[in-house]
Amino acid sequence: MNAGDGLFDLEPDSEPGPVGGQASPEPSATAPLAVRMRPRGLDEVVGQAHLLTPGAPLRRLVEGAAPASVLLYGPPGTGKTTIARLMSAQGNRHFVALSALSSGVKELRTVIEDARRRLDRTGQTTVLFIDEVHRFSKTQQDALLGAVEDRLVLLVGATTENPSFSVVTPLLSRSLVLRLESLSDDDIGLLLDRALADQRGLDGRFTLSQPARDQLVRLSAGDARRSLTVLEAAADAAGAVGAAEIDAEIVRTVVEEASVQYDRAGDQHYDVISAFIKSIRGSDVDAALHYLARMIVAGEDPRFIARRLMVHASEDIGMADPTALPLAVAAAQTVQLVGLPEARLALAQATIHLATAPKSNSVITAIDAAMTDVRSGAVGGVPPHLRDGHYAGAAKLGNAVGYRYPHNVPDGVLAQQYPPDELVGRDYYNPVEHGAERALAERVPKLRRVIRG
Asked: What is the pTM of this model?
């Protein structure tokens, strides 16, 4: 196996104390399968090849050639804890693990002071692993700055969110930021095969049918820890009934559906809704339905989805299909009045309609162009004949004098100046020549010729 094929993220062998602790050299035989199968070195890792090629920053960090703090972000089960442990194994470094959910400034200062004494007394460097570092407050993150800058600790911060949005700039500038990707199906399959055969794993006690293997790969959703956790549960279920082969039915008994990698408050929330809207804009109805399903299964607020559909109906479809906006509004009302799970049908109907509708951005282009002019000062006075004439003395001011009533002519359109003098002849709305807007593309120029004389 190629040593640069990557790694995966596993939980520590046991819960650390208040300020973490030295990593155990070998997990116990009763530890979870995912812990027992944790890579012991680069020759056992799979995945993250883009970060582990010879000379790449992450490989240099793990091999101890380039000591530096690092912020790792990516989905669960992709290698964040493992990287920290492999870094600590170089040069007999001390490993301390903290969780941002249960640690505060006091615990941080204790770790930093211990790291200072350890470095002065023995020259041993401390690797400080902080899980979910994005949950640290600004004060907590600021407390790390001095220790990171002076290399009292080598920080490995793990997060499922883009640190650009959740980590303070000074800490970002003092750390390498590396993105980990979900493992491929081949990576997950390799881990499953290894766990079945390895002495640390199931040690050949079970075989795995191909349908069951395919199911486990699919269920893992690129998460190594989840794949091994489900495999272990399936092995326990098979053992309970005396079966030596784990088949698809046994797998189905221990887990029903794949986990959805989605954080409603984080980076993936914005990535998935962005992909959803861009798929509708690109008229890919199938991709749009995929992302809609992903949000619904993950528990996204359906009102948020409905609001995005309403915006999209005007922004990317507009007058090319004037029925798009009323349909999106109806879907939003259905969400409000009916709720899930039934409202998924209205959301799906609106998604299908919008994705397959002809597209036009003429509405947003028109209003944005007009607002740009207004903000730049291109406003001018309202022409006198358009001003309000419904009060005493208005006529003496010239208000409404000379106004021509369009309904007095057969076609309802006549020559008359409507914009301020400074904006005469300025075009904002430019209809496209497809969908329902095709007729407007022919009509609007005719209207302008008549109105402008």
From this structure: 0.57
